[in-house]
Design brief:
- The chain is mainly α.
- The protein has helices spanning about 45-60, 65-75, 85-95, and strands at about 25-30, 35, 40-45.
- It has one domain (about 20-95).
- Helix content is about 35%, strand content about 5%.
- It starts with about 25 loop residues before the first strand and ends in a 5-residue tail after the last helix.
- About 0% of the residues are buried.
């Protein structure tokens, strides 16, 4: 254990910071061993590192360098929009009524 400069100083230091809105509700347990989600799920640093590693390996396997590059690729995807008259579609799929 490292030697403290001032033996009378408290051993536990509380750090309060303003977190971004996306992290609202997240907290650490009192012991500091787990990160707790707003839903109450606990995650260890080892598990979080594993999730980040897996994400990096999936990007690498897909031939991408970063998550931003993957998001750009999704945004650049082409979308084909077809407008069809409902009566024509219905006649094509269900036939037209005699009459």
């Amino acid at each position: 254990m490292p030697r403290r400069l001032n033996p009378n100083a408290p051993q536990i230091v509380e750090i309060r910071t303003n977190v971004p809105p996306r992290w609202h509700g997240w907290r650490f347990t009192a012991e500091g061993q787990f990160l707790v989600s707003p839903d109450g799920e606990h995650i260890t640093p080892h598990r979080l590192a594993g999730l980040l590693w897996r994400d990096a390996m999936e990007l690498r396997r897909a031939g991408l360098r970063s998550r931003k590059e993957a998001e750009k690729r999704v945004l650049q995807g082409r979308v084909k929009v077809v407008v069809v008259d409902l009566a024509d579609w219905h006649a094509r799929h269900f036939g037209s009524r005699a009459g």
